[in-house]
Amino acid sequence: MTEAHDLVDKVVAELPAWLPEQRWFGGKDRPITSVRPLRTTVLRDGAPVLVHLVVEVEQGDRREPYQLLVADQPDNHDATGDPELTGLLLDLIAEGREVGGLVFAHEPGVEIQAGLRGRRITSEQSNTSLVFGSQYILKLFRKLTFGENPDLVLQRALHEVGCEHIAQPLGSITGELDGRGTTVGMLQQFLPDAVDGWAMATTSVRDLMTERDLHADEVGGDFAGEAQRLGQAVATVHADLERALGAEHADADDIERSVQAMVTRLDDVVARVPELEPYVPALREAFEQARDTPGAVAIQHIHGDLHLGQVLRTVHGWLLIDFEGEPGAPIDERTALRSPLRDVAGMLRSFDYAAHQLLVGRPEDHQLAVRALEWSRRNRAAFTQGYAESASQTVGDPRERGYLLRAFELDKAVYEVAYEHANRPEWLTVPLSSIARITGEGAVQS
Ligand SMILES: Nc1ncnc2c1ncn2[C@@H]1O[C@H](COP(=O)(O)OP(=O)(O)O)[C@@H](O)[C@H]1O
Ligand SMILES: O=P(O)(O)O[C@H]1O[C@H](CO)[C@@H](O[C@H]2O[C@H](CO)[C@@H](O)[C@H](O)[C@H]2O)[C@H](O)[C@H]1O
Questions:
Q1: From 322, 323, 350, mutation site for ligand 1 pocket: most ligand atoms within 8 A of C-beta
Q2: Atom 14 of ligand 1: nearest residue by CA position
Q3: Where does the Maltokinase N-terminal cap domain start and stop, copy by copy (predicted)?
Q4: Stretch (H or E) spanning 184
């Protein structure tokens, strides 16, 4: 035990320098003022010692809990890269064990094969995911949200109503934090042959760009059929979420709150990214016009951060993953009932991204810019068509909610301006040029 405590002390002392170098650390914008352990569970007390650790990271007035898996190993304490040690997590889930208040559980009726090693995936993003054999994927949430994680709650609810467009949830790891059972891990069925939508879409754009004389519908890699099927899948997931958890109609107060939230986000982002300044009047006007949307607006649980990187094409069709919502948004906002058109808008933005990111850093090429716009328009239209074909009666055809859809798309683009500014400054022109196009406020060089 003293060995475990010494290890925790050593690791915690190193965290202020180590955390900002991690892809999944969401607080790279401010210096760390202190780190303290919140919860320590010794999972293995022999060489090497394995400890599950939750720490509170303080950055001025911001305090956030992060999850770590640490081992007593010479050069690297982060045990998520050790296949033998992470294998223990799956074994504990298979056995349905509880260790020091940390509950490892499999979903009712599910049997998990133990004895597999956990391979960390290289494309790790906001969290860390481990693949076991070709069957399972375990996501370890890095920044924790007190209580049950919406990723697990929504996918469980979808599975219960038989949704065909998600990977089956198979298990979870839960620990008490702040007096609440908090999800720290989620086990799901792994789809070894899946290709993500971003890879497929950007391949299609590249095909079009190399064929200078042909149009999008004439080249081999046309994506419009897939985009339409993706629209159907997203609408079906929304209808399934409505069946599982219900839907309501937004009243005037809900719409007003939503408009105010978009304006507040705009003010906040423009204060950090002055390049957004010229578009502020047009953006405000677009957000305020959302009030004029005719007819009732449905609100329900939604995905919340839908883009082409969050959808997987399998031999059986499209799947949606990662129902956690925008990683930077507060949990109350992420779990609130919202218009499904926000997800539609997120995906429309993503088609625009896929088309225009290939122009980043290239000298101006009018022909390529025209091609990018052509690809984007064709696939956005196909996606919306597919969505309208499968939309529930409550949600209806997105094309009949033009003001709202436009406002949501611009709101997402404002979020992306902040995201690119903080993460990939060279891509800032992608959302900025979309804002210029949609608001008709002049062009931005890609
Ligand atoms: N069920 C699955 N089958 C196959 N690959 C998956 C599955 N779930 C996730 N992935 C892969 O893992 C990556 C990260 O998963 P995601 O849930 O988006 O994690 P994060 O919250 O870290 O962004 C995805 O981009 C995808 O490539
Ligand atoms: O996948 P995450 O939940 O970590 O989402 C964040 O990162 C995304 C980038 O990886 C970012 O998405 C933006 O870039 C994508 C291309 O890389 C594009 O398809 C999306 O449309 C665009 O929004 C996402 O916004 C952010 O929350």
A1: 322
A2: 124
A3: 18-79
A4: strand 180-189
Q: How many CB atoms lie within 10 A of CB 406?
A: 19
- In 215-316, DSSP assigns E strands to 247-249, 298-300, 311-314
The residue whose C-alpha atom lies closest to atom 26 belonging to ligand 1 is 196
Query: Strand, helix or coil at 142?
Result: coil
Comparing C-alpha atoms, which of 151, 159, 154, 158 is closest to residue 183? 151
H, E, C per residue of 314-379: ECCEEEECCCCCCCCCCHHHHHCCECCHHHHHHHHHHHHHHHHHHHCCCCCCHHHHHHHHHHHHHH
Helices in 211-223 by DSSP H: which ranges?
none
Q: Which of 160, 161, 112 is nearest to 135 (CA)?
A: 112
Q: pTM of the prediction?
A: 0.94
pLDDT tier at 124, thresholds 50, 70, 90: low
User: Among 307, 358, 427, 433, which is best to mutate for testing ligand 2, by the most ligand atoms less than 8 A from CB?
Assistant: 307
Instruction: Map out the domains of the chain with their CATH numbers.
Output: 44-189 (no CATH), 195-301+337-441 (3.90.1200.10)
Apex 36 CA angle, 31 and 40, nearest 5: 140
Query: Which position has the token pair 């908090």?
Result: 182
Long-range contacts of 327-332 (CB under 8 A, 24+ apart): 327/26, 327/126, 327/143, 328/26, 328/418, 328/419, 329/304, 331/145, 331/146, 331/147, 331/150
Summarize pLDDT for 243-287 with one digit per residue, the tens.
Answer: 999 999 998 888 899 999 999 999 999 999 999 999 999 999 999
Cβ of 409 less than 6 Å from ligand 2: no
Neighbours of 87 (CB within 10 A): 18
Residue 160 Cα, ligand 1 centroid: separation in angstroms? 21
Identify the pLDDT of residue 445: 43
- CA angle (354 as vertex; 351, 357 as ends), nearest 5: 135
Ligand 1 contact, 123 CB (< 6 A): yes
pLDDT of 141-172, one tens digit each?
A: 999 999 999 999 999 999 999 999 999 999 99
Q: Cβ distance 371 to 377 under 8 Å?
A: no
Q: How far apart are the C-alpha atoms of 126 and 196, rounded to whole Å?
A: 16
C-alpha 145/C-alpha 152 separation (Å) is 12
Å from CA of 96 to ligand 2 middle = 35
Q: Which of 120, 129, 126, 121 is nearest to 28 (CA)?
A: 126
Please measure the distance between the N-terminal and C-terminal CA atoms of the chain and give it in whole angstroms.
Answer: 57
**How far is residue 192 from each of residues 195, 204, 224, 269, 314, measured CA to CA in Å?**
9, 22, 24, 39, 9
In the prediction, which pLDDT does 1 show? Answer: 60
